[in-house]
Amino acid sequence: MPDRDGLIVCGETLVDVVPAADGLWRTVPGGGPYNTAIAAARLGTRTALLTQVSRDTFGRQCVQNLLRASVDESLVMRHDVPATLAVADLDEHGAAQYQFYWQGTVNDVALPPLPDPVCAPAAIWAGSIASVLWPGREALRAWIVLHYADIPLTFDVNVRPTLIPHRETYVERLAPWLSLAQVARASVDDLEFLYPGAPVESVVEAWFDAYSRIEIALITCGAAGSLAFRRGESSTLHVPAHEMTVVDTVGAGDSYTGAFLDGFYQRGLDLSEALHRAAVAAAITCTRPGAQPPDAAELANELRRTTS
Fold it and tell me: What is the superkingdom listed in this entry's lineage (predicted)?
């Protein structure tokens, strides 16, 4: 176990509006950072979430959900503006595309003075929409550098072109974060938007050349599993997807990341084992509607079932 303990996740909280089985819609607390924090906490990692929430009904629901998952809310900042909504459109495979209601909401306001650190974590996570669209994204990055310069940072790209459609703007805003990251995570869809036509291996090589702190690049490939690249190693680690019946894919990537952080940094697993465990966690999430990551018992049971 590491000398430091736990995890701090930084980024947006929003509310997913997803189709229900009866043809109606239901609201589910979400957002990449929010789901990642819950995924790690449900697996047993002490996790704090630095985020902004509304004081409205949706915001209160989000905080209650955090508390049920035992996420530390001491870094949650509250505002008297509406919650941010993300309306999900699911295709025939359960994959989601989102339309965001962002302007004038809780994620479109200036950050208040950021709180003092609450712990000495094993790792920091940042990324998703907050890293490129929060008015206070530079202040957040400065806060991380000030308080956690020696803590490994995982940065999750998680591109949302419906919010920032201009590729060059996206690449420019991601660069300062990638320069701080020890682990960089993206999907093949993220890379295709950012670097159209470029092979994954070429993108990762360019990251290693441009950003000296990146030691590991994790690329998720949907049903094809995931790829892991380590600086200085010529071989690529391929982790197959774990096959289960898919209801939808909402929150699957966040469950993958939360389980990776829990396994690699908190439990000290080697990279291959941590990523296999992450793939199984993501698959379990896909078996139920919305972002509902597994708890430690559910993950352990599925891991035992697949090895028996």
Answer: Bacteria
